[in-house]
Each structure stands twice: as C-alpha cells, then as structure tokens.
Amino acid sequence: MEALVVDGWEVGNLLGSGHAGEVYMCTKKGKPSAVVKVVDLEKFKTLSKSAALQRMRAEVAIMSELNHRCVVQPFEAHCNNSTFLLIMSYAPGITLDKILLEPDLPGISESRVLRIMRQLLRAVHHMHQRDIIHGDLKLENIVVDSDNEDKLKITDFGFSQHLLYLGTARALGWTECYAPPECHSHPYPIVSKEYDIWSCGVIMCVLLTGKLPLTMDDYKALKDDRPVDIKIKVNCSSAALEVLGAMLQINSEDRMSAEEVLSLPFFCNSSRRLFFMQG
Hints:
The protein is an alpha+beta fold. The protein is built from 11 helices and 12 strands. Strands 1-2-3-5-4 form a 5-stranded antiparallel sheet, with helices on one face. Strands 6-8-9 form a 3-stranded antiparallel sheet. β8 and β9 form a beta hairpin. 37% of the residues are buried.
C-alpha cells in the first residue's frame, strides 16, 4: 500500500482483510480518525468488474442514507482502475467475537448482553425504517468500545440491500451460521427485514451461551425440508428467553420486528432488573 491513498489521506496499519479487500487506518490533517476499505474489483468471484463497481457504489449509497450513532459513516469514495476506495468513520474497540475470548465463557453476563442488544436492535430498527437490510449481521461485524460497551458500531455493509428500490431482493451472500432457516432451504433465498432479525437472535444466543441456536444436524434437516425445533439451554431470565424466542422463529413471518422486540420487558424494565443483577 502506498503512503497516500487519495486526496491527502495517509494510510496506517492494516486492521483486517476479507475475500476482496483490506481495511487500513488512515488519517488526514483536520479530519477525524478514519479507515479505508481497499477493494480489488477483480477479486469478486461471482461478479464482473463493472458489476463489482456497481455493488460497491450501492454499498456507499446505502451507508449514506443511514444516520445513526451505531452505524459507521462513509466520508469519501474513489475508484482508480480496478481498485475501489471507501473512506469511512473509525470504530475504535473490539469486535463482539473477541469478547467471547474472555475468561468468563461460555457467555457474557445478561446485563452486558442487554446493553449490546439494545444498541444493535435500535440501529437495525433505524435501517428497517428506511427499507434497508444489512444482510450480514454477525459478531465479527459489530464493534464495541473496549472502555465503554454503550458505544457500539455496525460495520461491513457489503451484503446490504435497499428494498425500496428492489422490491424483492435475493441474498447477495451470507454467513451460514447467522443466516436464517430460509437460506438453508432455498438455493436463491429472498432476503427481508426478518432476515436481519434472525441474525440478531443468533448474536444474542451466542453472547449468552457461547453456542449457536442450530446444530449441523438442524442445518441438514432444513436443507431436506424437515421440521426443526430450537432448544436453547441457558441460565438466564425468562425475559431474555422471551427475546430469543421472538427473534429465533423458524418461520420468518413469526419473527417480531426490531421495534416490537425492543418493546419487550427485557428492554423496557431493564433499569430495575440491572439494579438487582449488579447489587
């Protein structure tokens, strides 16, 4: 990577990499801390270069429509030959999957889960109000401040889609263990707001238990169109179990919306319950 990305932005340390690009710290005088997502448009396995460029531009457009404290914000976007550069706000902290590496496995405390899930669902509600689907919500795409877990950021909108423009949207791709049952029972699944809700349920389940809600046998059953029952073994409050049940419904039509989940007692009565948890 060269010393300057574009327009005076100076590249720093590598933060992470994916199938088509890398993310670096970058700085520019007079600007807040930022990161640059450097994407090689020729590395998309299923897209032509022009289609990959269109996909990246759509990602930037979707991010630009979102104005929420828990969503990373785009600053600039540039294309140079086969390289696409997306400069966006920096989310300091660690991803949620790193939290589970702490000594208190298999899960983290219910009070911590409540703070994380409230922020996540509020951001998802913000997206869904605008007919935007993230499409790849998972522990690795959510960052929390190491010193303050009340500061959460959702990243990586590579699979996001806008239902207002598309009407019916097919999944661009997915992370298998976070994808809802409909992705495992159909070769070209339609994505909806309920898709994100299932992913939120998986995230909450893993945070509480350290385990996924479905086993490999369950995934096989879904592919064979056989019934699956979700059985979650966790030592938590009935209010927390109610939230999991509201999101982890096999039938997508039975899942609550983000707004409805946030109205459940787990979130609405949290101040009183947290007092007893911490007391």
